[in-house]
């Protein structure tokens, strides 16, 4: 039956295997500092374990393939998981000799994927996520009844800044979009902090055997 509770031994076996392996599959290879406590709270809860995460980031993404964006030919010129100064960004893109054909300034918001031990636990976590402002969140159930809650935000931004190796924005405009990006990151962190507080309360209740219905 779709969505029925995953057998406890299977869930716990898979959780143990996952947590004993590499915890984060990103290129960075580790959990982002702003969400370390959140990830720890979820993984310490009997009903959940995390499979991937990003706390949110500000980047300049270079691409030499033009409009046909391919991950294999893209690279970061700049990346930060915190608020930034426009001078930092400008220094990363100022060199004309090394400039890519195209590049975009981006804000990528918080994203988190969590495997849940049953539909009730998944729905409760989803309710918490949406209640904290992560309105793009949802859940999926595989044919094997593996339930994943995806926690997603909408604090994104993408602005082309280099075309044909030429900077197509002014320094003043870079200062402006950097401040917009920082505002989005601050809002992102506020939601993460609220989510962490609610998740901690939820996990305390679950670990104490209280109902999540």
3D architecture notes:
This protein is α+β, with helices and mostly antiparallel strands and 213 residues long. It has one domain (8-207): SSo0622-like fold. The protein is 37% helix and 25% strand. It contains five helices and nine strands. The protein has helices at 8-20, 36-43, 86-93, 119-131, 171-207; strands spanning 48-54, 57-63, 74-80, 102-108, 111-116, 138-141, 147-152, 157-163, 166-167. The strands form two sheets. A five-stranded antiparallel sheet has the order 3-2-4-8-9, covered by helices on one side. β6 (138-141) and β7 (147-152) form a beta hairpin. α2 (36-43) runs parallel beside α5 (171-207) and α3 (86-93) crosses α5. The longest helix is centred in the C-terminal third of the chain and has 37 residues, at 171-207. The chain is elongated. The chain starts with 7 loop residues before the first helix and ends in a 6-residue tail after the last helix. Residues 1-6 have low confidence and may be disordered.
**Widest sheet, order of strands:** 3-2-4-8-9
Low-confidence stretches: 1-6
First-to-last CA distance: 19 Å
CATH architecture: 2-Layer Sandwich
CATH hierarchy class name:
Alpha Beta
Q: Count every helix, treating DSSP H or I runs of 4 or more residues as helices.
A: 5
Based on secondary structure, the structural category is: alpha+beta
Order of helices and strands: HHEEEHEEHEEEEH
Q: What is the fourth-level CATH superfamily?
A: tRNA wybutosine-synthesizing-like
Quaternary structure: single chain
In the residues, how many domains can be counted? 1
Average pLDDT confidence is 87
**SS elements, strand count:** 9
The radius of gyration is 20 Å
CATH topology term: SSo0622-like fold
Largest sheet at a glance?
5 strands, antiparallel
Shape: elongated
Q: Tell me roughly what share of residues is in helical segments.
A: 25-40%
Strand content: 15-25%
Keywords: Methyltransferase, S-adenosyl-L-methionine, Transferase, tRNA processing
Domain tRNA wybutosine-synthesizing protein: 18-200
Organism: Oppiella nova
InterPro entries: tRNA_yW-synthesising (IPR003827), tRNA_yW-synthesising-like_sf (IPR036602)
């Amino acid at each position: 039956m779709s969505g029925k509770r995953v057998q406890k031994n299977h869930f716990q076996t898979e959780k143990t295997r996952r947590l004993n392996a590499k915890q984060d599959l990103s290129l960075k290879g580790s959990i982002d500092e702003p969400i370390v406590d959140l990830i720890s709270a979820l993984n310490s809860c009997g009903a959940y374990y995390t499979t991937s995460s990003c706390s949110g980031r500000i980047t300049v993404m270079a691409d030499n393939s033009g409009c046909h964006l391919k991950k294999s030919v893209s690279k970061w010129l700049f990346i930060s998981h915190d608020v930034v100064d426009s001078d930092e960004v400008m220094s990363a893109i100022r060199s004309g000799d090394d400039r890519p054909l195209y590049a975009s300034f981006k804000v990528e918001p918080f994203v988190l994927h969590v495997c849940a031990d049953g539909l009730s636990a998944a729905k409760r976590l989803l309710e918490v996520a949406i209640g904290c402002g992560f309105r793009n969140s949802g859940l999926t159930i595989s044919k094997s009844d593996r339930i994943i809650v995806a926690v997603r935000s909408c604090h994104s931004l993408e602005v082309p800044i280099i075309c044909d190796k030429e900077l197509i924005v002014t320094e003043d405009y870079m200062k402006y979009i950097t401040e917009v990006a920082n505002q989005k990151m601050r809002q992102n962190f506020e939601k993460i902090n609220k989510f962490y507080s609610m998740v901690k309360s939820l996990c305390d209740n679950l670990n104490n055997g209280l109902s999540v219905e």
